[in-house]
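Record pair follows.
FIRST:
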Amino acid sequence: MTAPTIVLVHGAFADAASFAPVTRILLDQGFTVRVPAVPNRSLLGDSAYIRSYVEQLDGPVLLAGHSYGGAVITVAGAADNVVGLVYISGYALDEGESLGQLQGGFPDSDLAANLVYTPFPLEGAEPGTDVSVKVDAFPDVFAHGVDRADAEVLAAGQRPLAAVAFSEAAPVAAWKTKPGWGIVSAADHTINPDVERFGYQRAGLKSVIEIDAPHLVMRSHPAEVAKVIADAANELA
């Protein structure tokens, strides 16, 4: 058997470029890699989009999700051709649980005080609300540990998350039927690392490693992140 296609799923306040260093490493190692743009409009909508994307790929797929992307792969990973899940500083939601509920159990982080709420129009409905990180705070809160110049570029181009995504409950938890691996960012200033530890332990992931790294661990420690993903892909081959 060949290794599965690796689909990297970015999180809130980021885009596919957040995975660029890891993508390069995995491509150089001969893996087939895809990094779709997540709409960041709602957990249910984003998960449906990624699931549809995955189901149109030939052969088995390994999903790797960062941050909010972990919640997305938890739901989208129910697709039949998904054979494994990798959580990177991510939310491993349980069935019926929302981001807000899981995060609320471990409130310590620097993120809440540095969020910006901006209305956006919705056709035929009340305006929605976009959530983003204050541009000036982004390098220290979201990209702590990343080269300052790179962090400023990421801050300028961050992809907001619609507020509704925080309250929607996951209709399914793919980790109950698919093997999983996890990375805890021990120096995370965005998500309390205990959120990651709790979710991974509850999910019974096959392997969990801790890296003394910030939330954007795939930018600060790309080799370590790529190794976890590659090892999982090779184990599933």
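SECOND:
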Amino acid sequence: MLDEHNIMLVEDEALLALDLSLTLEEEGAQVTGPFATVQTALEGCGRKLDAAVLDVDLCGSNVFPVADRLFADGVPFVFHTGRSDLACLISRYGRDVPILVKPARGEEIVKILRSLLH
């Protein structure tokens, strides 16, 4: 369960964002977002967050400024991406940041979030 944990969701595909939001809420999480752009996600970083799920490509922009901010603030996150160049993510953030390839099942995302939070 993700009871009472505040999870930021950054996803620009509306249906996927809705599905992920519902999955996280069913697990007891409070969802911040979803945010579909880098700018709105950066504004959301000012809130108290326990973890985040980040799509890498947001309307043609990389989510890296958001990931950098979360990383600096000590907020764990998981990348949920359709990108084929995963080496770029690993070289930038290391092997400790989980990467799930879309479409990952909701259960996989919840399992990763649980491991990041405990």
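COMMENT: Residues 6-117 form a domain with the Rossmann fold fold (CATH 3.40.50.2300).
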